[in-house]
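Dear Dr. H.,

I hope your travels went smoothly. While you were away I took the liberty of generating a structure for the chain from your last submission, since the lab meeting agenda had it listed for discussion. I wanted you to have the full record in hand beforehand rather than looking at slides cold. The sequence, exactly as received, is reproduced here:
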Amino acid sequence: MHSTLRVFTKNNCLSFTNMNRFSTAAQVAQANYSKFRADYSASVAAFQQRIKTIEKENTGSMKKPMAKAYEHPYNSEHHPLNFSAVKIAETFHDFIGPEQVSPHYESFAMSRKFLLTFWGGFFVLNFGMATVDLNWIMKSTYIPWIFWFQLMYFYVEGKNSMFMPLLQRFYRRAAANEIFTMEAFYHENIENKLRNLMRITKGQLEYWDIHTSYGEIRADSINNFLANEYLRLQSHITSRALNILKQAQAYETMNQAALLQKLIDDATSAIDNALKGDKKAEVLARSLDSAIDGLSKGYMDYQNDPLLPLILSSIEANVKKITTLSAQEQANLIGLTAEQLKSIKENDVRARKEFLESQPKLDNNLKNIESVKKILATWGK
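The corresponding predicted structure, in token form, is as follows:
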């Protein structure tokens, strides 16, 4: 096994590292990671302190000015000193009062029924005055119709359209009720308004907490990511080294089996050669005698077996060839071939490429960010 590793290193195909060197590399990497985390935490703390200093320098409380604007002694809200069209419009609206709106609804035909009746009768009378038979009746009715409707229309319906309805008391009561209702629910309305504003303010304060802790969250996220990637790299290197050793051991076992198979094949060839030609009958006869001798003794000792010397001589010849070789040559017999070394190297290169091209484990929300998408699209390429 060790000889194979030496050959493997000598051919510069792959390098193997023992477990002590793996542990040393892990300690060095851990020390570098600890130093990086300490430096990064110090940098984040310095940055936060600098931001707080800048905010403190640029944040000041607003103070109410002590000076008071000049007020003219003859100027008042009711009698302004300067002319203003707005004040004139306000005075005009105060003079005419609020818009008079009927508290109930009536259709046009119902609210003007007497007026419509007058005009309807007026046109009927004019039509009747133009006839031959009814002209004297219609003419005698025409003047009273106009007189009485003109006299009575104001009292029955005209006052509602010619003048505003006399509902000032109703409007004052309605306005007073609205003011009373507003005063009664004033505290409740203000409380609801403040609750809504407090809810919005608390939501903004939560965003501020997230904003202030962004540096720490980012540092922890980066540290966690680096730690996970470091552990993943350690596991990958260990796995690759273990796979190389396992493959080398499997190839050595295969080479040993091939060497033993060669010894067996040589012995089998010696037996086949002995059974060929004229010696076949002699070998078979001696084998029969050896079998009969074993039966007579009750056990087989293979003393007169004609094939056993051939097998032993073949094995001894092959063993002698191996034992006469140097230690390096003996190691080369079961050592890895160039094809086997190439296969191990290709497998290791493939594992390394797969590791480099495999994307890190990130949150799906983070992967949906455009900048992260661009980085992951070219990851390992």
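Two observations you may find useful: The radius of gyration is 58 Å. The chain has 15 helices and no strands.

With kind regards,
E. W.
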